[in-house]
Design a protein that fits this description.
Elements lengths: L2 E10 L3 E4 H5 L6 H8 L3 E4 L6 H15 L9 E5 L11 H9 L6 E4 L5 H14 L5 E8 L10 H4 L5 E10 L6 E8 L7 E2 L11 H5 L6 E2 L1 H22 L9 E4 L4 H10 L11 H4 L6 H11 L8 E8 L3 E8 L4
Helix pairs in contact: 3-4, 8-9
Length: 331
């Protein structure tokens, strides 16, 4: 039987580090206020001449190299982003493929916000196991700083830029396979996290630009309550379905949105603090890039080896959510 395997992990973080002290200069906030409510101390913003595709290209190139492949070996490119280079077209994936020298292959974007990487794993797993393709490059990439209202202290301090990439390849060894992926959504909460202007519902106009409707808006308290409940249940369900005990997991790597959410979910489950991998304090919420960026950091520090069992869990605008149980297949 053919399985899908997480063959490589990589990330790219832009150079410009933004501290909480930097935000104290532009909005009514403080390091204490931000840290207490989010756990975030720093985040990184891309330069003015960098777009999401540039971040994705740099992470994607490393992921291909670490998988021991060349660009011509990649059969498909899929990018998850809520901050594409362009609205509508062309897709960011097409630009990334061109940058990497990947020719005449299917490329497309998905928009599932912070759950993007989990959705990417689900798609790649289906394509690989159906034996349609052998090697798929998936990338979560965000330049969210372009979508932030720096007059809104409730949102602008939360997010950062970055990209995380993986090659998903075919294997016959279940011990290095993506064991299970669960994804879901509920559109009744679509207004909890939203970018109001720019689409067909409300095209760009001077009126909505003056009202800052082109920026991310969030109902923080409502999102927090639904996120904690949903994430914890999703983890419990995927572990039970696969007869896996929490002690068998090397790292639980949740979406890095807010330390309070991660702590609340971790407290409802039986993971030790050493099992829960946290990067939100340093990188903020990088949406679709957050899980692969955190996974890559653990990998580069030597904490992840071939065959290690990883559990991913994410929640984002839509509302969307998902979890994945993955045996790392990289060398």
């Amino acid at each position: 039987m053919v399985y899908a395997s997480l063959r490589s992990i990589a990330s790219y973080v832009p150079d410009r580090c933004i501290s909480n002290a930097d935000f104290e200069k532009i909005v009514d906030t403080s390091d204490e206020w931000i840290t207490k409510r989010t756990g975030i101390k720093t985040r990184y913003f891309a330069s003015d001449d960098e777009a999401s595709s540039d971040l994705a290209t740099k992470a994607g190139r490393i992921a291909i190299q670490r998988a021991g492949l060349k660009p011509e070996d990649i059969d498909m490119v899929i990018v998850a982003t809520l901050s594409p280079d362009f609205i509508g077209m062309p897709s960011t994936a097409c630009i990334v493929a061109h940058n990497l020298g990947i020719r005449n292959r299917p490329c497309f974007d998905i928009t599932t916000a912070c759950s993007g990487y989990i959705y990417l794993l689900s798609l790649a797993k289906a394509y690989i196991q159906s034996q349609t393709y052998k090697n798929i490059l998936i990338i979560g990439a965000e330049k969210i700083s372009s979508y932030l209202d720096f007059k809104d202290r409730s949102t602008c301090v939360l997010f950062g830029d970055g990209a995380g990439a993986s090659v998903i390849g075919a294997t016959e060894n279940k011990n290095e396979a993506i064991l299970d992926v669960h994804i879901s959504a509920d559109g009744q909460y679509s207004d909890f996290l939203i970018t109001p202007a720019g689409g067909s519902r409300s095209p760009f106009s001077q009126t909505n630009l003056d009202a800052s409707q082109q920026f991310i808006k969030m109902k923080g308290n409502e999102t927090f309550k639904v996120a904690v409940k949903t994430l914890a249940k999703d983890v419990e369900d995927i572990l039970e379905r696969n007869h896996i005990a929490p002690q068998q997991i090397k790292y639980f790597i949740p979406h890095q949105a807010n330390l309070r959410i991660i702590s609340a979910v971790g407290g409802m489950l039986d993971f030790t603090p050493e099992q829960v991998y946290i990067t939100v304090d340093r990188f903020g919420n990088t949406s679709a890039a957050s899980i692969p960026m955190a996974c890559n950091e653990a990998y580069e520090k030597g904490g992840i080896k071939k065959g290690d069992l990883l559990l991913f869990d994410a929640f984002g605008g839509g509302l969307t959510w998902g979890s994945a149980l993955v045996a790392f297949g990289g060398d």
